[in-house]
Amino acid sequence: MVEPNSKGGYNLRKRKKKDVADDMVDRISGLPDEILVSILSLLPLKEAQATSILSRRWQYLWAYSTNLNFDAEKNLMRLNELKGEARELEMCRYVNWVDSVLKQHRALNIDRFRVFFKLGPRICIDEWIQFAMRKGVQMLELDFSAYIRYLLIGKYRFSNKLLGISETSGLKSLCSEYIGFKCLKVFDLKSVDVDQEVLEYFISNCPVLERLAVYGSSSLVNLRVVGHSIALKYLVIRGCENIKTIQICDANLVSFCYDGYVRNLVLSNLPLLVEVSIVGWLPHDFLEITFFHLSCCLSQLEILNLNYMKACCERDPVIPSLPNLKRLELAIDDTENFALLHLASFIKKAPYMHTLVLRLSQSWSKKSPFAKKTAAKCSHDRLKVVEIVGYSGLSRQIELVMYLTKTASNLEKIVFDPVNSLRPRFDRLRDLVVEKEELSRAQAQQLKRKLPATVEVVCL
User: What is the pLDDT of residue 11?
Assistant: First the structure.
């Protein structure tokens, strides 16, 4: 309450000064250390480190962070412009930064440990992983996939010492001093060379491992995930060009994403599998082969992502019943005359589909309308959301949108996303692509006038 002064008025200036002083009070530093550490763990690592200069109390708080994300994207961009010794020096700076943080780290446990840089097979990576193991890491991510011009280096491989085995023993025989990955729940490997024996070793010896992702391993030829005792629920295999077979049987898998040749799959007795994504190499009989290998789980699938329409043939595709499908993602080549007919076949077989995502080809569409438009006519009363990725406003794409607004009688929302996922690395070409994307957004806004007023239109 503001007290009156000697003249009967009120000293508002004094009140204002008091309010400003209250606003300048450091209330954050009054919070318990546990809460401050939780906040710092949400910040980028270098920003969290920068708080050490605030005061003596803040000097080592960042060192208790449980999220060690060594993301150096800006350094990677600079690495592209360097050559020879300068490039190697930049790599050494990254290594020194990681080593310095690990030397100062004080927390007993860590939730996440992520490395994101371009490094070859270095001993320091083994030491970093051993550190994470000692700290009971739950999420371990190794990402060495960044593209650096004119840089050809080998890929990192897990050493026998790290895995706790001797040179003469097999992977089933562990050394007594082996630390182990008893707490590991998420394991993400990009451009790490792992083979079948090592992957199956991790799957068998990580008792709570639920998510495993492998990208770009040329050594992975075969993989078996077999047995209800395995905790694995989410599996991603992409860019492993030498894969011959993947066998998944009698497992608790919930989600499976695979980029490769579909003939290599053997799936059976997977009662919990509700999400499948198949993209990659496309034989002319892609659909027939894919649905044959997914026959054990088609009736229970809720999310299905297929990159198949570039393999369209003129005959009507045979699509099995998908009674529980809620979300369907299809990569469509809108230059194919029968693309609309094939899309209709999916719509008819998924009566409870709520969301449809169409990824359009980046090529120029033909001017002529789609073939067999009459045969493609159907009605769907559960489809509520449609997303068009790669929209550029060409005639066939407009025809596709109009078809969907007529087919989905209760459609609520259409999302236009013109962004090209494969943007060129060179600035001049990238600028042209961005300019085209802006034009596509403007064309989507024009198309909005032709759509039903009840449909919400979003342009990303």
Answer: 56
Q: How far apart are CA 373 and CA 343, in angstroms?
A: 11
Contact (CB, 8 A) for 184 and 209: yes
Do 206 and 229 meet the contact criterion of CB atoms below 8 Å apart?
no
The structure tokens listed for 3 are: 């007290």
| Secondary structure letter of residue 317 according to DSSP | P
Could you tell me whether strands 327-332 and 303-306 are parallel, antiparallel, or unpaired per DSSP bridges?
Answer: parallel
Local structure of 256: helix, strand or coil? strand
Handedness of CA 262, 213, 329, 274 (dihedral sign): positive
Compute how many other C-beta atoms are within 10 angstroms of the C-beta atom of residue 176: 5
Give every CB contact of residue 371 below 8 A, 6+ residues apart in sequence.
Answer: 337, 338, 340, 341
Can you read off the two tokens belonging to residue 117?
A: 């840089």
Distance CA 7, CA 361 (A): 80
Classify 303 as helix, strand or coil: strand
Of 448, 424, 426, 454, whose CA–CA distance to 437 is shortest?
424
Q: Which amino acid is at 19?
A: D
Residue 214: strand pairing partners: 189, 237
Name the amino acid, one letter, at 372. K
Q: State the Cα torsion 401-406-409-412 to the nearest 10°.
A: 30
Query: At 92, which amino acid appears?
Result: C
Question: Is this structure's pTM higher than 0.90?
Answer: no
Question: If you ran DSSP here, which 8-state letter would residue 54 be given?
Answer: S
Single-letter amino acid code for the residue at 308: Y
Per-residue exposure over 302-330, b if at least 16 CB sit within 10 Å of its own CB, e if not:
bebbbbbbeebeeeebebeebeebbbbbb
Could you tell me if 41 and 68 are in contact, meaning their C-beta atoms sit under 8 angstroms apart? no
* Lowest-confidence segment of 18-32, 160-174, 394-408, 420-434 by average pLDDT: 420-434
Bin 279: left if φ > 0, else alpha if -120 < ψ < 50, else beta: beta
pLDDT per position as a tens digit, 188-218: 999 999 999 889 888 988 899 999 999 999 8
CB burial class (10 A; 0-12, 13-18, 19+) of residue 407?
A: buried
Beta-carbon contacts of 12 under 8 Å, excluding residues fewer than 6 positions away, are: 2
Strand-strand pairing, 234-238 and 275-279: unpaired
Distance between CA 162 and CA 178 in Å, rounded? 8
Residue 143: count other Cβ atoms within 10 Å of its Cβ: 18
- State the residue for tokens 């993989």: 223
Residues 6+ apart with CB under 8 A from 305: 257, 276, 277, 278, 279, 328, 329, 330, 357
> 73: how many CB neighbours lie within 10 A of its CB?
9
Report the DSSP pairing between strands 211-215 and 234-238.
parallel
